[in-house]
């Protein structure tokens, strides 16, 4: 037993000695590495830089959207009755004012005749009251009441004639019948959908532009339009609307009016691309977006002065992709720090690296 205990103690001592030796070697190695790092470390912060230069800002951009019909409405019935005639079908082109259907006007004609008869009776009664008023047979109040009856009767005549004329249902716009909701013999009432008419002579391409793009657009600007369906053809559009308020995605809706060709090849719902070819801009000083400390809104950059970082307030202008126009605060040829600003304050020693 004593021999076994002695062996165990010897093993434990050897293990502890081995551990101590490993730890001592690691300590020496770390001290050596630390010495090397300390020897090469001058206290300067590593940064990336770029020289501020003058160039033209390319503001051209393109935006995708969907074509919408210039006018798209559903024609509804204004009177009750049975459809006696339909003169157009789906796909037919109609002109504004063209009769597209007719509703049985027998009851409407009866109402118009009755209203006319009531009006004539009211006129005769008024004449009798006015004659009696001269002899003192009726009062002025009674005469005024009869005159009111005449005006009301005339209004009913005009309403009845309007309803009778509405028996002929006419197209309110020119366009193509996209849908027909009725059949001959159908009974309709006010509000019943009859036809959907779509005007494709002009289309609206609806796109969006961000805040840096929309400031360069104005209503009336010409825009080049392309479509994947007709890659060999090019259409011309004109900006007809720019939203004064951004949507939930902070983009501004823009509508472009596009004249369709004679064959109405472009259809509502197709995809289109608006190519905004903006005028050539004057040369300006630009820097990368990353040159700003925090964000462009901070108006702050760091300029390299020898081996020292100097804080500089600048006035940013337009943003074109990853570059920002500088209006004031920076001269061409100055070196701007583009990376590592998080560790910088005014006067920090830096070392430019690639």
Automatic annotation (TrEMBL):
Keyword Transmembrane helix (UniProt): yes
Membrane recorded as keyword: yes
CusB-like beta-barrel domain ranges (all copies): 206-276
Keywords: Coiled coil, Membrane, Transmembrane, Transmembrane helix
Domain Multidrug resistance protein MdtA-like barrel-sandwich hybrid span(s) in chain numbering: 76-199
Coiled-coil intervals, chain numbering: 112-163
Residue ranges of the TM segments: 6-23
GO cellular component: efflux pump complex
YknX-like C-terminal permuted SH3-like domain ranges (all copies): 284-351
A GO MF term: efflux transmembrane transporter activity
Pfam families xref list: Beta-barrel_RND_2, BSH_RND, YknX_C
Family: Belongs to the membrane fusion protein (MFP) (TC 8.A.1) family.
Protein name: Efflux RND transporter periplasmic adaptor subunit
Native source organism of the sequence: Arcticibacter tournemirensis
